[in-house]
Amino acid sequence: MSSPKTSKKQIPAETDPGAAERNEVERTVNPRGESAAEMNAGENATPSGEEQASKRAKTPRVKSPAEAKAVLECLLYATVEPLSLKQLREFVRPMDEKRLRVLLVELQNDYDSRGSGLQLVEVAGGYQMATRPRYADWVAPFRKRKRRTGLSVAMLETLAIIAYKQPIIRAEVDAIRGVDSSGTMHALLELDLIETVGQKQVPGRPFLYATTKMFLKYFGLKGLSDLPSIESLRERFELSQG
After folding, report:
1. Domain identity same for 230 and 179
2. Which end of the chain is more exposed for a tag (fewer CB within 10 A), N or C?
3. What average pLDDT score do residues 148-174 get?
4. Tens-place pLDDT, residues 35-62
5. Which CATH number goes with the domain that contains 54?
6. Are both 114 and 152 inside the same structural domain?
7. Domain containing 90: what range?
8. Which own/partner contact pairs does 231-240 have at CB distance under 8 Å and 24+ positions apart?
9. At how many degrees (to 10) do helices 97-113 and 65-78 cross?
């Protein structure tokens, strides 16, 4: 798994004083609000809903469980984002989600039984192919990724508070930590580990913050119910850096 990617995104003014001016420029140049990575993703991007619907209409029906399992393997190999059971069902017709789940377990067992370097993981509400952590020493140099500095103690502390208390406003984070968290939250927003999810209905209507799908993906979590301790979060992040 790769490390969180920074992207140009709209940062709330309460965590970035210059955000208002930059956001106005971005809305003029890019009214759809896409990041540079999204605008340039091209063929490697996961298809949008409309694109998936169009392609689904042209997708043939599978003729057997064996063929369905092979198609699942192809889809999971080709995607760059986790695919949910609902998304897989749309392509692997006429299999229902219950039968797809059985096939996914069989596929994972196939990889495990032959000692494959690949594994099928359930993460961020979906399924995805990934290399096994024990082979990271061989994979990391090949990918030539730029290593990031690990999350600081302040970032981990803030991230944990948001993860366990979400949705939460910045003032509540500050109160729990006992210090101003605007800079730390700005950094977490840039890493796309947290996002704004609305505004609290109180005077001033401050932004509410929550963790993102990328947070789940890069810490290897199926969902928020799998949240680990702060120390475990640190270890997972460091492993994700290769």
Report:
1. yes
2. C
3. 85
4. 433 434 444 444 555 555 555 557 788 8
5. 1.10.10
6. no
7. 45-79+83-123
8. 233/151, 233/156, 233/159, 233/160, 234/150, 234/151, 234/156, 237/150, 237/151, 237/156, 238/150, 239/133, 239/136, 240/1, 240/2, 240/3
9. 70
